[in-house]
Amino acid sequence: MASKQPFVVGVLTDTQYADADDGTSFDGTEQRFFRHAETAVVEAVETWRKSSPPVALVFHVGDIVDGRHSKAHSLDGLDRIRKPLESLGVPVVYACGNHELYHWPRDDVASLLGFPDSSLCRRVTESPPGWRLLVLDVYGVSILGTAPGSPERALAEQLLATHNPNADKNSATGLVGIDRRWVAFNGAVAPAALRWLEDELSQARAAGERVILFSHVPLHPECGAPLCTVWNYAEVGAVLAPFVGSTLVLCVHGHDHRGGHTTLVPDQTAGVTATLVPEQPDVSAVCIEAVLLCPEGENAFATLELWDDRIEMHGHGAVADRVFRLRP
Predict the structure, then answer these.
(1) Tens of pLDDT along the chain (328 residues)?
(2) Distance of CA 97 to CAs 94, 195, 198, 260, 269, Å?
C-alpha cells in the first residue's frame, strides 16, 4: 500500500560560520557571509519547525565552521550552528567536510559529530522503513585530518605531487578539466570505505530498501564543477554502478558552493556516466547550494519528502525545487 504521508528530511550544507567580517573566497570569485550563516540556520530551522508533515531528520552535509574561524574557539563556532539545528528536537546527521578537518583530527570529528568511529561513515539508524540513508567519508585518503607519516597521508601527498605541479596544492592553476580535482581541499574515498559502501548497498538491495547517499564532496564531475570532485570518482562509480536506479536513488552533496545536478546512469565500462536528462528514473546527484554565499535576507536549504514513487525536493532560497521519480 502506498504511504499517505512522506518521511520528511531537512538538508543544508556549507554554512562555514566564522566570527569574521564578510569576505571573499581566496581567488576572489565568491562573496562570503560568515556571521550570517548562524542567522540563516536559525531561519531554516524555523521553516522546518512549521513543516507539515513534520521534519523527522536533518542533514548537514559538511563544512559547519569555516577554516578561518579561530582555532581557539572552534567548539564555540560549531555550537553556533549545531545548537539551532538540534533545537528542532529531531536527529541531526552530519557529513565531514574539509573545514571540519581544518579544525580537528578525524577521531575528534567522529566524537563531535556522532560518528560510530573514525571511518566517518555511517548508516543512519533513524532511516524510515524501506529506506537506507548512508553517509560516506570522502577524506580517507587526504592530507587533511590524517596523521603525518600515515599510509593515507603519504598516498595523498604522492597523488598531489604527481598530479598538481603547483607549490600551493590548494591551487588548480594550470590544471584543466577533471584534472582540476587534484587539489588539497579534496580527497579520496579510502578502500575500506569503498568496501563498506558496497556492503551497505548489497544489504539494502537484499532487503528491498532504497538508498540515499550523502557525502560532502560530489562523487561525479558533472554534478558540480570538476574542481569539486572526489579524487577517485571512477572507483566510486564502479562500486555504485550495479545499484544505480534500483537501489541507489539519490546522491546528495555539498562542497561546490554554487550547487549542481545531474542524472547518473550505469555504464559497464565506465562505472557510471552522467546525463542531463532529469526525468530519467535512474539516480540523480544533487549538490546543494552553500549557506555561506547567502547575504542577509537570503538562504539556501532544502526539504526532501520521501514518497513511495518519488522524492520531492522543495528548495528554499537559492535551492531549486526538483522531483526525482523512482522506479517501482
Answers:
(1) 356 899 999 999 999 999 999 898 877 788 999 999 999 999 999 999 999 999 999 999 999 999 989 989 999 999 999 999 999 999 999 999 999 999 999 999 999 999 999 999 999 999 999 999 999 999 999 999 999 999 999 999 999 999 999 999 999 999 999 999 999 999 999 999 999 999 999 999 999 999 999 999 999 999 999 999 999 999 999 999 889 888 999 999 999 999 999 888 766 555 665 543 334 446 789 999 999 999 999 999 999 999 999 999 999 999 999 999 898 8
(2) 9, 21, 22, 17, 30
